[in-house]
Specification:
The protein has 228 residues and is of the alpha/beta class. It has six helices and 13 strands.
Length: 228
Amino acid sequence: MIYVTGDTHGTIDFNKLHCMRDRFRADDLLIVAGDFGAVWHPNTLAQTLRPYRQLRCTVLFVDGNHENFDALGAFPVQTWQGGKVHVVAENILHLLRGQIFTLEGKTFLALGGAESTDKAFRREGVSWWPQESVTLADVEEGMRSLAAHGMYADYVITHTLPSCLLVRQPFLDMTGGRAGVSEMLLNIIAENAQFGHWYFGHWHLDLDLGGKFSALYRRVVPLAEEKT
């Protein structure tokens, strides 16, 4: 079984996974849609990773905006299920941007990243990193991966949403329709690719937007219940 959920922020929002502990099996996969946040300070890494390592499933995550990108970049890169990953621990993998992975017969495009709205209160290289934003190179890598799969993915997993959704509530009220760089670049994927369903985190809400988009935060969704 494959599950997908929203931001976990290290141990801050881990409780939703703790509640699932007895459901997870060794061959299950859990995907976190950014702001994983458990790779932060080297001196607390063992502590923050411990609850994830104790889960019986394999934990996969795209990066969000609240990540230590220098620490993530220090992990070895390997090829796994058709795409590139950082191997954080035996059962914890960071899905690199623009990669497509084939999991249980379904294809997943991973493309993390977003802009922090609180970076004025953070320190660059300490609690905020410029690598947080989606770049054109990330999207170009995603488009190359999609082209190799007939411009189709069963699922798209991002941290933030594509800008086309900012005309919908509640995002219109939250942003005034103003898109960040990451949202605008992700819209290139939304406009040019075909996909079954698109999941994203970042906005700290649970909402199905009708059709093909869902925001996740507290929910842990088993994909067997979803139709592609």
